[in-house]
Design goal:
The protein is α/β, with parallel strands linked by helices and 296 residues long. The chain has three domains: 131 residues, P-loop containing nucleotide triphosphate hydrolases (Rossmann fold, 3-Layer(aba) Sandwich), CATH 3.40.50; 63 residues; 49 residues, no CATH class. It contains 17 helices and five strands. A five-stranded parallel beta sheet has the order 2-3-4-1-5, sandwiched between helices. The longest helix has 16 residues. The relative contact order is 0.11.
Length: 296
């Protein structure tokens, strides 16, 4: 539906964050997830066969979970309906399922995207089962938490779990290049500062573009020291009783087994500092690259 702002041409003038402006318009534009979306990937194969199963997208923030879900709906010809488990309850789910039933009777399928699906309790998760099993909705859930711990077995048995990768340096640098093309100007940073900007993002594409938005607003070229003063450093992700805690322990053990002294010292220091409630900047990524979601 066209709004009054659209009719007046005002919507185009409204400022958009760089991350939103660069949101991929097709699955081919999604970076860093070729293992899922490529021709040989499980999602790529499903789409090539003109089918789409219910699935859970598990990965860290800023790697494209919401974007992929939206693009899957378009590619599969399904109506895209989005809910956040943070703001939605049973009444919202009933409305969605009733609308999906009516839509199905007219020949139109529904892709129901549930962000932060792990925040629904077990009883609410059970409410999805008959509608997913009967095909009233194709469920795509997004979570940053391990589905094996946070989702009940009955729901997991009806969905495939796809693990999204944290974006590596090459993928993040590609995002910066895309931003430069969008704005028709180079990022005003030295080569060293550019590498530091990628390091600050720590695998999060959305956060990288948020930082780049601030850098593009500068009128002079920034070196590494100036960039650090402008942006500060991101607090490392940590939850003392959740999965990040055990990822960090896993990273420490693997670093010690691999005789990687620097990584072991980093993991030990970061764990000690975070447990005390203080944040310090680190080299970034040692725990994520070595211990992400993995046991010993």
């Amino acid at each position: 539906m066209t709004s009054l702002f659209d009719s007046a041409g005002l919507s185009d003038a409204a400022p958009l964050p760089l991350a939103e402006r660069l949101r991929p318009a097709s699955l081919a534009e999604v970076i860093g997830q070729e293992h899922l979306l490529g021709e040989d990937g499980p999602i790529g194969r499903m789409l090539a066969q003109n089918r789409l199963s219910s699935c859970i997208l598990w990965g860290p923030p800023g790697v494209g979970k919401t974007t992929i879900a939206r693009l899957l709906a378009g590619r599969a010809g399904l109506e895209f309906v989005a809910l956040s488990a943070v703001f939605s309850g049973v009444a919202d789910l009933r409305k969605v399922f009733d609308a999906a039933k009516a839509r199905r009777e007219s020949g139109q399928g529904t892709l129901l995207f549930v962000d932060e699906i792990h925040r629904f309790n077990k009883a609410q998760q059970d409410g999805f089962l008959p509608f997913v099993e009967s095909g009233v909705v194709t469920l795509v859930g997004a979570t940053t938490e391990n589905p094996s711990f946070e989702l009940n077995a009955a729901l997991l048995s009806r969905c495939q779990v796809f693990v999204l990768n944290r974006l590596d340096a090459a993928a993040l640098d590609g995002l910066l290049a895309r931003a430069e093309r969008e704005l028709s100007r180079d990022l005003p940073v030295t080569a060293e500062a550019r590498a530091q900007l990628v390091e600050f993002a720590d695998g999060d594409g959305r956060y990288l573009l948020t930082l780049a938005d601030e850098v593009f607003a500068q009128t002079k070229e920034l070196d590494a020291a100036s960039l650090s003063g402008l942006l500060q450093k991101r607090a490392p992700v940590y939850d003392k009783s959740g999965e990040q805690h055990y990822n960090l322990i896993s990273a420490l053990h693997k670093s010690m087994r691999g005789s990687d002294v620097d990584a072991a010292l980093y993991c030990a220091a970061r764990g000690a500092v975070c447990e005390r409630g203080y944040w310090r900047s680190g080299s970034g990524g040692a725990d994520d690259q070595r211990g992400s979601g993995a046991g010993l």
